[in-house]
Amino acid sequence: MSEEPWPTEIKLLEGGRMLNVAFDDGASFALTAELLRTQSPSAEVQGHSPEERVTVGGKRNVAIIGVAPVGNYAIRLDFDDMHGTGIYTWGYLRELGEGAPAIFDAYLQELAAKGLDRDRPGER
């Protein structure tokens, strides 16, 4: 079993619209604030079961306004829409980085299926 990836750098870019995360194995990912916000691991977004998951629209221009450590295993991101309850573990950040194109494509499909879009607030 491999060890959990360990971040070597976490840096806000582009006025908080991008979060760069580099890992100790050389992998590095530039994650958009929109992706991070819409895929927040918070109960507000993920619910307590897959059926409770909320599709979050209207976040094209969201920005990250704060990054705070949570123990030695995660960070909490604060967004300018006042969302700040998601705890992003190193593994989850890595998962988002590796799967970003497919995850974002699935998000766009969810928006379309629910009549939502990236510019107008939706379910939450």
Automatic annotation (TrEMBL):
Origin: domain of life: Bacteria
Domain Gamma-butyrobetaine hydroxylase-like N-terminal: 10-94
Keyword Cell division included in the entry's annotation: no
Keyword Metal-binding attributed: yes
Record key words, sorted: Iron, Metal-binding
One Pfam family of this chain: GBBH-like_N
Protein name: DUF971 domain-containing protein
Native organism taxonomy: Bacteria, Pseudomonadati, Pseudomonadota, Alphaproteobacteria, Hyphomicrobiales
